[in-house]
Amino acid sequence: MGISRASKYMAYSGGAEKYIQFANEQTMVIPQFEDPALLDDFEAMISQPHVDAVVIGPRDLSLNMGFPDGPNHPEVQEMIDKVIAVCKKAGVAAGITAGTKADSDKQVARGATMILGIAQILIMNGSKDFLGK
What are the chain's domains? Predict the structure, then answer.
């Protein structure tokens, strides 16, 4: 715990002990899945207490799987489906990025329960739509 706005610059009412309890209650644990080698132990990893969600990194996952052209490769898509299934079985939210409404809808349909929008991609895609390109 340090001097920060969150700790009210060390003036949190109730003292440090109360602040630490509050901070621990408010902290989310969200590991990111980007390495296919983790799949075998993944369920045990995310079944640990206090894991709230998992974020799948599709681009890094595709690179780590040897597909530099991106996450649309069928093997990458299959791995994403496996990760989402493991998250569902463990009762942990499965998050993934989406750059368009259609992509978001696709991710939700496949079982993702948390969609992360990347501001730069959303702005770029919105600009392309606006310009008709």
Answer: 1-27 (no CATH), 31-131 (3.20.20.60)
